Structures are given as structure tokens and as C-alpha cells.
Amino acid sequence: MSIEQSSNLITICSDSIGDTAEAVVQAVIHQFQNQQITIKRYGNIRHEEELRKLMEEAAQHKGFVVYTLVQPELREMIKEEAVRLDLRIVDIMGPMMQAFIDTFDDAPQQRPGLLHQLDENYFRRMEAIEFTVACDDGRDLGAMLKADIVLLGMSRTSKTPLSIFLAHRGKKVVNYPIIPEIAPPQELLSLPPNRLIGLTMKPEYMLKIRSERLKVLGLPTGSQYASLERITEEMEYASSLFNKLGCPVIDITDKAIEETAGIIMGYI
Known about the structure:
The chain is an alpha/beta fold. It has two domains: about 10-115, 3-Layer(aba) Sandwich (Rossmann fold), CATH 3.40.50; about 120-265, Rossmann fold, CATH 3.40.50. Helices cover about 45% and strands about 15% of the residues. The chain has helices at about 20-30, 50-60, 70-85, 95-105, 120-135, 160-165, 185-190, 205-215, 230-245, 255-265; strands spanning about 10-15, 40, 65-70, 90, 150-155, 175, 195-200, 250. The strands form two sheets. The protein has a four-stranded parallel beta sheet with strand order 2-1-3-4, with helices on both faces. The chain has a four-stranded parallel beta sheet with strand order 6-5-7-8, sandwiched between helices. Strand 5, helix 6 (about 160-165) and strand 6 (about 175) form a beta-alpha-beta unit.
């Protein structure tokens, strides 16, 4: 049965914050044409009564439940509730933990939320996010010299969401808009190519995105911003700048943010 044929609700249950399970769910949803899925997330589940209540609610919608539970009593209970309510459940962490036990002869700590403890990595991610937000769209040119990654691209090449995604991976990111009428700053020209990433896409795809953007803003779609002539001009200028800088260039046409971020992490 496809997602389209079944209920459109996926319930996420976690004894931590649940973002691991949601990341997996989102990755799966992108594989299906029908992406009109509602995700309801329950985090920090610690007691059996909480678990029972959310399972009963999920059963009313006839969707399914995805869970990341490490406490043995909750793991056992969710299986019992699934049988009682005739509800499909998907264990995200269980098979991986069992493989770890079988292969390395070790035992899990069974403590919820270890991934999100306030350790050095957590503070590094928070610092990266604050840095990246403050430097969005070329607001602080001097910050380029402190950045781990500088994203370059014309308008509507997903620079901002990609920057934030990378920041959540602990990378300080500056994104800079490429505009033919504005010469690149000296800070940009002084950076080594391995800290620069160029973003581009197919002209017809860009034309569609910009036209839709103008509709959302209530502006006329016949403006120069959404003309193929202007887009071609910007792309030719961007291509010449990328060549001058000697940086890698990624065509983001039809690529999800996660996919593009994975390519960038591979480069650096």
C-alpha cells in the first residue's frame, strides 16, 4: 500500500527530542510523489501512560508510528500497544543497536537524549547557527574570513536554507549573492578555493522558481528578474566568477537540500 492510499498521518515517538526519527521519515517521504503527509512528533516520552495515550491517538488516524526508544520497558510496551491497537510501528534505532551488540559484544547505555547532551559539539553547533544567521545574504563581508564555508550563487539558489542546514552540522557559513552589477568584494577574492562553493541550476528551472516567487509576493511575473534573458546573463557572470575563483560548482537542479549539503561536506 502506498502512502497515498493510506492515512496521511505519521506519528513520531521518542524518549529524546525525536529529530533522528523525523529525519528518516522526511527522507522516505521525498521518495514518494505524494508528499502531503502530516507528521506529529512526541518527544521526551518517559512514562508508560504517555506512551499509551499517544498510541491510542495514532490508532484513531490509522497511520503508523515511528519510534526511537532506548528504555527497555518503553520498547516492550510500544510493541504490546501496537498489537492491542492493530497499529503498524517502525523501530528506527532497535536494529542498529542489536547489530552493534551482536557485532561488537557491547551493551547500550539505555539513556535517552545522549545525542543531544550539552557537550562541546552542541555549543559548536549553536555558535555556527548564530554566526550563519548573522551573515545571511552577504550582510557581513568581513565574516567571510572566519567562515568554514562561503556559498556563492545567484538569487533563488537555496543559499539561505542550505547555509542553515550546514550550520546545524557545526559549520560556520556565509552566503553571498552574485549580482553582475556588483563587483565581488576583496574578502571573497582573498579566500582559498577549498572554502568556496558555487551554486547553479538549469535556466528553465530558475525561470520557474523566480516566476513562482513573484506570484507569491503579488508582483507582476513579466519583470526582468524572471526573464530568461536576465537569468542567462546572471548565470554567465556567475560561471565566469566561479572559474576565476577556482571553486567547486554544484548544479542544485532537482536536488534536495540534504543531498547538496552532503556533496558540500564531501568537498570540505
